[in-house]
Structure formats: structure tokens, C-alpha cells
Amino acid sequence: MKQILQVLLAAAVAAGAGPLFARTKLAALPQREAVDIRMDHPLYTLIEEERVLTLSKGLNQVDFSWQAVSIDPDSIRLQPLDHPDGVRLLNVSYPPGEAALVWEIASDGNWAERVRISYLLGQIDRLAAYKALTDKAETKLDLTAYLIVRNFSGEQFDNARILIGAEAAFERTIAGGETRQLLLMQAGPLPITKVWVWDSAIQPWDPEKLEGQNIGIPVFYRLVNEQAAGLGRAPLWGGKMRLFQDDGSGSTIFLGEDILPLLPVGRKAELTIGDSRDIVVTQRKMKEEQINIRRNRKEQIVLYDTDEILTAKIENFKDTPAVLTLIEHIGGQWEMNSCSLPYTRKDAETLEFEIPLPPRKGDKPAAVELEMHYQRRNIRP
Fold first, then answer.
1. Can you give the pTM of this predicted structure?
2. Hey, which of 76, 123, 344, 367 has its CA 20 to 30 A from 21?
3. pLDDT exceeds cutoff 70 at 162
4. pLDDT tens profile 52-63
């Protein structure tokens, strides 16, 4: 196969023996001795290849050219390996109108010098894809991760090492135009928590008033990237995750798919598996009264506060316990007078409640009630 990248060497006169010979391209091509494809960065792919250059004592010109390959010229680097003190890169020039550069190298001897050439290469990338299988009780998950390498760069890499992070490395030949799927990781069983998420800004407050409509609460599996959960050694790359469940009879149920975001160590991800009508949230504003009214000289209201009471009733119709994440929003400046359940303030206007729900008893659902009494300050009409 014709090589796309060309490294060509022209001997120059010894130092002090007159002007350099004209740039000459030779037919012989130093073959790659080794090549690493580094895919640690989500947007760029770094190629590091080793070649052996025959250098004459004195000044040498090395011509590095490429055709039909997306190389960032500013990223190209040359590093001598065998004689780092005896081989020196003096300058780099870029011939006009060519996809090429010329290195001027000074060598203290006649050497077959092993060098490392590195550059950023476009149109070669990687994707992460995941398959997750939960047990029937939906408390544990087996996770399989795949690395999908897509090489549309126009170059072939023989026996290349594909590197992802500090731990994952594969040695493969990647042909031009080829897509390869590689097993990246298997882990499990990993503990998961099934959570229902109800957001007051998204879900209806009183589902009974929406007759004939299919109203459900989004359901997620919560996965934590930590050592206690069987992970925690490195971030999980973002990618599509397909979720399955063991049905208890040797078969699996397809639950759906979601996008796993880049998950750093110690962080959690919530993977959606659909909507559920086993938990019902009914929320009402019980009080909203203007207080501390301020007026201008014309007796017009310019500022006021409010005194508000909000209640929510959460009912669990399931035979098993559940955890509901309930999200409330209070705009502007506010103060909480009293709240019947603990919460976490995610930002200035967002409160998050983690509410454990017991299972129902017989035909009667288990119910938990929330009451918030708060005042909003300095509201303009």
C-alpha cells in the first residue's frame, strides 16, 4: 500500500563546507518502527510514530510531507531518541503551496537515528458504547464498555498501539476507512439505585385533573463512579448506553437507552429507563399572601414580600420501597421559615429532596407529605 505520510532525507554538506544542497526527495522511505494512537482527548487524536533516519555528520534536511491526510502542521514535532545530545533540530521551514515541512538537523556523527514524530491527526476518532444488564430486583448492574475506533484519515496503521488513559491499551492494525470495536472494560455487579425524579417546573402538580392523559414520573438508574461501587479507577467516557434487565427466567428485557455523560471519579450519573405511574405526586399552593408592602408617594406599590405555604403529597403504589428525588424552585430572594423534610440547596433557586418511600400496605399506598413555609423578598409588581 502506498504510504500517505512521507519522510524523506537528503544529505547536506558538512558544517562549514559551503552552502546546503538543494532540497532533494529520495525514493527510499523509512518505515515506521512503532506507532501509538493516543485517544485520551475527546476531540483530538495524537499520533506518535518511531522511524529510523540515516543521518550524515553535519547538516541534514529531512522532508516530512503528507497528502490527503488531515494533519495539523503546527502540531508536528520531532524528537531524537538514540543520541538526544548529538542530534539537534536547528529550524523548520514550510515550502509554499505544499503539504510538507523541512527539518534542518545537525548530527555529530553518521548515525541511523531512531526518532519520534508526533502530530495531531484528523478524521480518526473514538466512541464509547456501553451495555448494562441489571438483575431482576434492579439493585445491581453488570457493565460492559466497548471502544469504537473510526479511521477515515486516509492512512493505515499496522500493529498500532491504541491508548486510552493510563490503563487501557490495545495493539491492532487499523486500515484506512475501517471501524473497529474493542472490548474496553467489564465490571460488575455494581450497586445501583432506582430513583424517580419529579420536577415541579416540568411535571403537572395535580395529575387527577389531566383525565385521559398518560402521566408518569421519569425513572432512572443511579450509578456512582467510585471504588466502593466497583469503579473509581478512572473517568468513564461519555457514550450511548443500552440497558437490559434479567427477567429471572434466563432471558432479558430491553429497558431503553440513554447517553452516559463523561463521568469523573466520585460523580454520579442517572440513566433514564422511562416513566412510571407507580408513584404519584400531588402538589398545591396553600397560601400566597403579600406582606411588607412598600409604596411610593402616590401610594403605588413598588415592593412587597410574600408569605407562601406549599404542600406535596407523595404516594407509593409499589409493593417495594422507592426513592423519589423531588425538585422545587423558588425564584428570586427567599427565606425558608420551616420545612417538614430535609433538602439540599443546589443553587440559588433550586431545592432537591431525596425522599425514601416505604412500600404500600395492602391496597393502601404509602404516603409521605411535604410542607414548605417560606417568604420571598423584595418583589416588584
1. 0.72
2. 76
3. yes
4. 998 999 999 888
